[in-house]
Design brief:
The chain has 273 residues and is of the alpha+beta class. It is 34% helix and 26% strand. The chain has one domain (26-270): 2-Layer Sandwich (BirA Bifunctional Protein, domain 2), CATH 3.30.930.10. Strands 9-10-11-12-8-4-3-13 form an 8-stranded mixed β-sheet, sandwiched between helices. Strands 6-5-7 form a 3-stranded mixed β-sheet, sandwiched between helices.
Length: 273
């Protein structure tokens, strides 16, 4: 059975010369960041997902440099230690937000790259594994370009564990990803740690302690640590985008007023207590 169109990188179109032509799937690239509005930043991704599900926009990829924030998942929110964990994050200079997708608490800061890939899909659940594999492949290829020995899979003891995390040498986690599906669309969101892994360890130790989540702080990694030098965050983001461009047809775009207004209305729902 052929996969739904929105789950494929390409489709075949008849060309004028009588031969079939392979056409890459088009994705709108958005590079808007909101480093001083962490809750609003998450709400923007939520707004894009809703618009994609309603057929108002097509496929989008937002790549941004985030604020300092700890993003809590649904399991965290349901935990008895959630409020104390949010306080622990704020005491260390991180905003506490409720994430759009994913499992356990994850950390974003200006030394990381945040990505949000929104995919319209009439059967979004059918493509969950495909999308996870595609994004893990893109990130692993990005790290390979930069000289990191990248592997896809969960390291025992990693924070916010996942089968499609990307690590270095099966020792240090560098990328985490989660996915959310709604009627008509899917959101794949995550974080790539470029610099300053120590900040992630320092805030997650008390946060996970409050949540009662066992983990190994030594699994936190970064591109900087692997290459033994800080990396230019914008250049790494460009490399990540270049890997996407090798697989899809990227077209630069901007957030419109309707999306921003929708994000404003959604923002309160992503603020931790």
């Amino acid at each position: 059975m052929q996969a739904p169109l929105s789950n494929r990188r390409w489709w075949v179109r008849a060309a004028p010369n009588g031969y079939d032509a392979i056409v890459l799937r088009a994705i709108t690239l958005i590079r808007s960041s909101f480093p001083h509005q962490p809750v609003f930043d998450t709400a923007v991704s939520h707004a894009l997902l809703r618009e994609a599900g309603g057929g108002q926009i097509g496929e989008t990829l937002r790549v941004s440099i985030p604020a300092r924030m700890v993003a809590f998942g649904r399991q965290d929110v349901a935990s008895d230690g959630y409020r104390a964990a949010a306080v622990a994050a704020r005491q260390r200079g991180f905003a506490a937000i409720e994430r759009l997708a994913g499992g356990r608490a994850a950390v974003f800061h200006p030394g990381t790259i945040s990505f949000s890939w929104t995919v319209p899909d009439l059967e979004p659940r059918a493509g969950i594994t495909t999308r996870f594999k595609e994004i893990a492949d893109v990130v692993a290829a990005t790290l390979d370009r930069l000289g990191v020995d990248a592997q896809v899979g969960e390291i025992p003891g990693e924070y916010c564990p996942g089968a499609y995390s990307v690590n270095a040498r099966w020792q240090h986690k560098i990328m985490g990803v989660g996915q959310r599906v709604i009627s008509g669309a899917a959101h794949v969101g995550g974080v790539i740690v470029v610099n300053d892994a120590s900040s992630i360890r320092d805030v997650l130790i008390p946060v996970y302690d409050e949540l009662g989540v066992p983990w190994d702080p030594n699994t936190v990694g970064s591109i900087e640590a692997e290459l033994r030098a800080p990396r230019d965050i914008e250049k790494v983001a460009d490399t990540f985008i270049a890997e996407f461009a090798d697989r899809f047809a990227l077209e630069e775009g901007l957030l419109d007023d309707a999306t921003l207004a929708d994000a404003e209305s959604l923002a309160p729902g992503h603020a931790s207590p």
